[in-house]
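User: I'll paste a sequence; please echo it back and then give the predicted structure.

Assistant: Echoing your sequence first, then the prediction.
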Amino acid sequence: MVDVGIIGAGVIGCAVAEELGRRGASVVVLDAREVGGGATQASAGILAPYIEGHERGALFEQGLQSLALYDDFITRVESSSNRSIEYRRCGTLELADSAERARTLCAGAEARQDGAAAEWVPGPAVHELEPCVSAEVLGARLCATHGYVVVPELVAALAASAQSFGVTFHTHAPVEDVQPENGGFCMRTTAEEIRVGKVVVCAGSWTSWLDIADELQGRVRPVRGQLLRLRWQSEPLRHILWSSACYVVPWVDRTVLVGATAEEVGFDERATVAGVKDLLGAVCEILPSAWSADFVEVRVGLRPASRDGLPIVRASERITGLFFATGHFRNGILLAPLTAVMLADQIS
């Protein structure tokens, strides 16, 4: 019998599997798609707790804790996977594209008393930092500790690291049923039955389909996010940019990610003309030279949003040996290291 079966090979499932494997557990991961083929492949990889958690609270604190783990997390995974991961703490600039937003961001920067390096940057100084930014931008809030990670490289490295510790991955293997059996569980796919001691559901928006404890029904829903990738032709961007309508993530290869829509459309994973048009319009408002960029691709993912906006990382309240790691919405990449440690501690 395998110690732990994980349903879902997105960034959360891979991070949990890697952490458990590193601790010596035998682990099998099953997914209906490729590794990282669900919502993860449409993630921009932004690591920005001071933006995602403007209001103090549990999500903000979790984001800070997980960001503090990231340097060692990347170093460790690169070493054990023998792969490189593009990871930069280049900072974020939250752009004030209206007088009201300028007042809000400026007040927020002044209120920070915790050494977070959040500071207000007036308009002329913003244009010195980022010459391509529109002259209409009135200023920006700079947080130098923020950054990004290239998600495909992170997920590939996590999977390789996990495999180096004996974790096995079964892709294109949709789990049809999970049932308690003889003190463990039987996981059934279309092709096989796998018996495991414990089960972790990391199925994102599809969590309710595999909730055998019937305790998360209606608590996790899909939110469609469309993400563009452009090949930048102007002066290289130095920071992650964040306006009221979009964000922009500059990669080392001179492509940029532009995201993201947030659409309540159920399990519809289509890329749409409206979504692409809105994002292109938004990025060209803050970066007029974006009109000269090459269009590379659009990606779509269904992000798992919980009812209260907080991730669900815990043991089942009804079935011993069943665990959940879901509901991370657009913070799955940021919270992956912390989620892996939290869940591995509970399972161990």
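The chain has two domains: 2-85+150-219+307-347, 90-145+221-305. The two ends are 16 Å apart (CA to CA).
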